[in-house]
Amino acid sequence: MHQILLVDDEPYVVDDLSISLPWREMGFEQVHKAYSGYEALELLQRYPIDIVVTDINMPEISGIELITSIRSHWKHIRVVMLTGYAEFEYARKAIEEQASAYLLKPIANDQLIAVIGKLQEELRSEWETWSSYQRTMQTFREHLPLLRDRLLSELLQGRKMSAPQLQERLSQFNLPLSTDLPICLAVVRPEEFFRRQDMNSMLLFEYAIINIAQELFQNRFHIWSCKDVHDYLVFVLQPRDDIESSGNPADEVAQAAYQLQNHVGTLIGGGLSVVTTGWGGFPDQVYTLYQSAISAIRQHIGSETGIYLDATDNSGSQPVEILQPLYEPPLLFHMFEANNWQGIEEKLNAIVSELVRNPDRSLEHIHETRLHLETAFYYFAHKNNKMLGEIVGNPLLEQAPFQTPDKLREWALEVIVLLKEHFESERLNSRTVLIRNVHEYINLNLHYVSLQAIADHVQMHPVYLSKMYKLETGKRISDYISQVKMEKAAYLLIHTPLKIYEVSAELGYSNAHYFIKLFKEYAGMTPHEFRERAL
């Protein structure tokens, strides 16, 4: 769907064009109107307009000046110039200024439709060319480092992905790793020297560290890296199956880690702490290995600097497992913000299923889940300027600790349903108030009312307001304005002695002939005939 802008300093020309052509059938989702060059430029800055139809002879900003500005800022826009026969030579300059077409007044509708249809086809062809496979692949290659970084970051945060899914993504991103081989991680923490740098300098240093790491690891390992939420650099290392090595992969990782510390200290002058992990399946154990490295930094390195640590757990002790579905993305906080109620329920079911599946989960895990859920509930309510207790009731929030996952699920679902019902009802009420405010403003300002004026009154963007109004009423705002104007015109014609041109002016129409045409379409007769029949 396209958008078109009609421009002429004679309002009846613009208004007549806006209603005399089947714009929606022609493929236009919105028709904008401007009565001066200045107003046209303002609309061009606000909306994604594709075609401009403009008069050539206008005061203040002429059609030629308008098209010059369009060519400077919006090169994709097609422009149709309207000109009188006496201005034919003047129109030639419009062609030189890259007008797409020009038409002589008076304009025949079928002629204008044909010209606009041709321009729409040009736009479609241009878009298809721009969106060609070659251009798409070029854009993809430009964003490839960011896509690789984001995918690894998601795996580190616990995103679940099957081996076939990941293998397909790895192939798309030109990463030579295989889900059939194990991996280990090297987590690099830049020390004080790097933390003192500004953002731009730090980006260059991180790039240098990654390049040095690739030089050291690439002869023996495939390597994949990203920066994590702690501003650490994380490297996934997988032994290359195309190179034979007599050494122990773990020893080779440790040796390269030591070299990385030395090279960075010598070449850049900053220190690093490096933690390497044991080996695990890919991708299933990426999250677990990463958590072991972060835990090792926290527990065994702390504020010390320049440390290398092998985080392989040889102690034989049984670690306390975290409740992973509770913390893997998307988080409950994000789903509440998006009003993703189905996702919230699915997340809750996944958490409770994990509690039920693993009998080793303690009551402490159930208590942890409840605290996490309550925090999300309070966050969502407070962010929407509500007190949670007022929505769900304090007795529900003050229940005794739960002993089973099923009781936890039952309680959480009850709170979620109450939250959903409250905010869905509030949302519908707010829309009702919005429509009432729009109608009140229109009724009080029929002499001069526009979409922008209404949007300013209700403090919304005009495009968003139009969509909201159409969603709630099934009609366009312009349809309602026209209906109310015609209804008031009918009242004035019957109950007042105002002349027809005075009724037209009372309703904001600058041209009485245009008003008569609209009223005839509304009532099936002219205003004069309507008044005569009512008497």
What is the beta-strand fraction?
5-15%
Shape category: elongated
Low-confidence stretches: none
Average pLDDT confidence is 87
CATH architecture of the largest domain: 2-Layer Sandwich
Name of the CATH homologous superfamily of the largest domain: Reverse transcriptase/Diguanylate cyclase domain
CATH topology of the largest domain: Alpha-Beta Plaits
Radius of gyration: 34 Å
Instruction: Just give the CATH class of the largest domain.
Output: Alpha Beta
Largest sheet: 5 strands, parallel
Give the N-to-C terminal Cα separation: 47 Å
| Tally of domains | 4
GO cellular component, one term: cytoplasm
GO biological process, one term: phosphorelay signal transduction system
Main location: cytoplasm
Keywords: Cytoplasm, DNA-binding, Phosphoprotein, Transcription, Transcription regulation, Two-component regulatory system
Summarize this structure briefly:
With 535 residues, the protein is an alpha/beta fold. The protein contains 25 helices and ten strands. It has four domains: 126 residues, 3-Layer(aba) Sandwich (Rossmann fold), CATH 3.40.50; 149 residues, 2-Layer Sandwich (Alpha-Beta Plaits), CATH 3.30.70.270; 96 residues; 107 residues, Arc Repressor Mutant, subunit A (Orthogonal Bundle), CATH 1.10.10.60.
